[in-house]
Amino acid sequence: MTEKERLKKIIIELSYEKRNVTLASGRQSDFYFDGKQTTLHPEGGYLTGKLFFEAIKGVEGVEGVGGLTLGADPIATATSVVSFLEGKPVPGFIIRKEPKGHGTGAWLEGRKNLKPGARVVIVEDVVTSGGSSIKAIKRAEEEGLVVLGVVTLVDREEGGRENIEAEGYWLKSIFTKAEILA
């Protein structure tokens, strides 16, 4: 079984649920992908990091990976650790949903690992409308980073790709909804 096949099996076992749910986008759906169940699993987290690193290896000049807390946190960490193990270290970062309420008041954690103008990739567990990805892109750019594109574990194929591309960025998905449910 390939790493991708194994990760798909873990996603189906731990992250896919057939039930009615309201998504972060506000839309109603009859199924749910809870990506954190996979990305926080020991093997699932490792495989996620491995496949995300593979997805960014060919992107010229990536200097960081990160996104909005909480979904991006384990992905950015796993990708960064795998990049180190592969001899091509790429730091991770986390974008807060609100600025830190004390100390530095920072929006972005991991700042000292990124030079001003660093070229970064936003990571996500699930993309539906692309709203969270676009929010992460805007905040990263406000923090002085140059966003290249987005990589997601699962693209629900509900307009997110089109919305992200309309903003001028690319989206790479490890899996689409169709691939998971096939």
The H/E string reads: HEEEEHHEHEEEHEHEH
Overall number of strands: 10
Tell me about the largest β-sheet: 6 strands, mixed
Radius of gyration equals 16 Å
Strands in their spatial order, largest beta sheet: 7-6-5-8-9-10
Classify the helix fraction into a percent range. Answer: 25-40%
Can you describe this structure?
This protein is of the alpha/beta class. It is about 40% helix and about 25% strand. It has seven helices and ten strands. The strands form three sheets. Strands 7-6-5-8-9-10 form a six-stranded mixed beta sheet, sandwiched between helices. It has a two-stranded antiparallel ribbon with strand order 1-4. Helix 3 crosses helix 4. It is globular, with a radius of gyration of 16 Å.
Task: Describe the structure concisely.
It contains 7 helices and 10 strands. It is α/β, with parallel strands linked by helices.
Labels describing this entry:
alpha/beta, glycosyltransferase, two-stranded antiparallel ribbon, Or_phspho_trans_dom, EC 2.4.2.10, 182 residues, 10 strands, globular, 6-stranded mixed sheet
Task: Give a topology summary.
Blueprint lengths: L2 H13 E2 L3 E2 L5 E2 L2 E2 L1 H5 L2 H16 L6 E5 L3 H14 L6 E4 L12 E2 L9 E9 L3 H12 L3 E10 L4 H7 L3 E7 H5 L1
Parallel strand pairs: 5-6, 5-8, 8-9, 9-10
Antiparallel strand pairs: 1-4, 2-3, 6-7
Helix pairs in contact: 1-3, 3-4
